[in-house]
C-alpha cells in the first residue's frame, strides 16, 4: 500500500557552493512535509558540504565523482524505491536517465541548469566526444525536464527534439530573506559588483574590457573563483584596474555586498536562470547586462530594475549614462522580483509538478 506522503529523492553530485546545489537543497528542505517525504542524496563527500541541511534525511555516497558512484546510486534506488527521483546537473542526469529504463516504477525528473546548445560552445570549445550522443539522448528518458527559463525550454524543444509536454518552466526561488536597502542615491565613486565563478561563459573579460574604457571613477567588487583566475587577473593588470577592484573568493555575506553596490554587472554568454541577478534586484541593486539566453530578459524590466545591451560598446555607453544619471529606486527594483520569485510562488510550482506526475502515474494503477 502506498504511503500517504509522496516519497521524493533529490539527487546531486555534491554540496559544494553553486546555484544548482543551493536551489535543489532548498527545494528538498522546504516543500510541504505534510505531503512529501524528502531525502537529499549526494554522490560526493559529506566533508565538502557547504550547506546546512535541516529536517530531512541526507545520504552521502562518499564518492569522488558521479562515474565512481554509479553502482552505489543504483543500489540506493533499488533499496529505497522512491516514488520520484529528481536529479540535477549534466553527468548525474545522464546516469539517472538511463536508470529510468531499469526502474520503471520510479518517476524520473531532471533539472537542467543552462541553455545547453549554447553552453557547449564554451565548455567543449567546438570539440566532440563519443559520449555526446548518449548524453544528448538522456532527455528522452525522463518523465519531466525542469527548465529554469523559457529560453531553456525553447532550446530543449528546438535543438534536442524534446516534446513540450515533457518540459516545464520553473524559475529559481529567492532562497534567503533579503532586505531592501535604504539607498536614495548612488555612492561616490559608484560601486559595481559581479558574483560568478571564473569560467569562460561568464564573460568576465567583457566586463573588464568595458570598465577599462569608462571615463569616471568607480570601485568594482568581484566575488567568485574558478579555472580562469589567472587569466582574469592578468587582464586586470593589463587594463590597470587593480586599484579599483576588490576580489572575494567566497563569502556567505553576498547580501551585504550586493546592498553596498549601486549596479550589478552581468556579461555571461549563457545562463540557466541567474540567482545572483534575482538576489541583486531583491536587495534593490539594479542590473546592467549584455543580452544572452537564459532568462535575463525575463528578469530585467528595462529602466525599472536594470538595462540590457547588445555588446561591450553599448555596455560602456550605458555605464557612462548610469553614472551621470542614476534613475533607479531600490524599492521599485526589489518589487519587480519579490513576488515573481518568492519562495511561496516557486515552491508551489514544484509541489504542483510533483503531485501531478505522481497522480498521473498512480491514477492508472
TrEMBL record:
Start and end residues of each Glycosyl transferase family domain: 181-310
Highest taxon listed in the record's lineage: Bacteria
UniProt key word Hydrolase: no
Pfam families reported for this sequence: Glyco_transf_4, Glycos_transf_1
One Gene Ontology molecular-function label: glycosyltransferase activity
Keywords (A to Z) from UniProt: Transferase
Domain Glycosyltransferase subfamily 4-like N-terminal as annotated: residue spans: 17-175
Sequence intervals crossing the membrane: none
PANTHER family: GLYCOSYLTRANSFERASE
Protein name per Swiss-Prot or TrEMBL: Glycosyltransferase involved in cell wall bisynthesis
Amino acid at each position: 500500500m502506498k504511503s500517504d506522503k509522496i516519497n521524493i529523492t533529490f539527487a546531486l553530485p555534491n554540496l559544494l557552493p553553486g546555484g544548482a546545489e543551493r536551489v535543489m537543497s532548498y527545494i528538498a528542505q522546504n516543500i510541504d512535509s505534510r505531503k512529501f517525504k524528502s531525502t537529499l542524496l549526494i554522490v560526493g563527500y559529506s566533508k565538502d558540504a557547504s550547506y546546512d541541511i535541516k529536517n530531512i534525511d541526507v545520504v552521502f555516497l562518499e564518492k569522488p565523482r558521479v562515474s565512481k558512484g554509479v553502482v552505489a546510486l543504483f543500489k540506493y534506488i533499488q533499496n529505497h524505491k522512491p516514488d520520484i527521483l529528481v536529479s540535477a546537473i549534466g553527468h548525474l542526469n545522464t546516469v539517472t536517465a538511463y536508470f529510468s529504463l531499469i526502474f520503471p516504477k520510479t518517476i524520473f525528473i531532471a533539472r537542467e541548469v543552462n541553455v545547453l546548445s549554447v553552453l557547449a560552445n564554451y565548455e567543449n570549445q567546438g570539440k566532440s566526444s563519443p559520449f555526446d550522443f548518449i548524453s544528448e539522448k538522456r532527455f528522452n528518458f525522463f518523465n519531466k525536464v525542469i527548465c529554469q527559463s523559457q529560453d531553456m525550454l525553447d532550446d530543449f524543444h528546438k535543438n534536442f527534439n524534446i516534446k513540450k509536454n515533457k518540459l516545464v518552466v520553473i524559475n529559481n526561488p529567492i532562497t534567503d530573506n533579503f532586505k531592501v536597502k535604504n539607498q536614495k542615491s548612488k555612492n561616490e565613486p559608484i560601486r559595481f559588483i559581479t558574483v560568478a565563478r571564473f569560467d569562460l561563459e561568464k564573460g568576465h573579460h567583457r566586463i573588464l574590457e568595458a570598465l577599462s574604457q569608462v571615463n569616471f571613477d568607480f570601485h568594482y567588487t568581484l566575488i567568485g573563483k574558478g579555472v580562469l583566475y589567472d587569466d582574469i587577473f592578468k587582464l586586470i593588470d593589463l587594463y590597470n584596474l587593480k586599484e579599483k577592484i576588490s576580489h572575494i573568493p567566497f563569502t556567505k555575506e553576498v547580501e551585504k555586498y550586493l546592498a553596498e553596490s549601486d549596479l550589478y554587472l552581468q556579461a555571461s554568454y549563457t545562463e540557466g536562470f541567474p540567482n545572483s541577478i534575482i538576489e541583486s534586484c531583491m536587495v534593490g541593486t539594479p542590473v546592467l547586462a549584455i543580452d544572452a539566453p537564459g532568462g535575463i530578459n525575463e528578469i530585467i524590466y528595462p529602466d525599472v530594475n536594470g538595462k540590457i545591451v547588445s555588446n561591450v560598446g553599448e555596455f560602456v555607453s550605458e555605464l557612462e549614462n548610469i553614472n551621470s544619471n542614476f534613475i533607479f529606486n531600490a524599492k521599485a527594483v526589489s518589487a519587480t522580483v519579490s513576488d515573481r520569485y518568492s519562495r511561496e510562488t516557486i515552491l508551489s510550482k514544484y509541489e504542483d509538478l510533483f503531485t501531478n506526475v505522481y497522480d498521473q502515474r498512480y491514477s492508472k494503477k
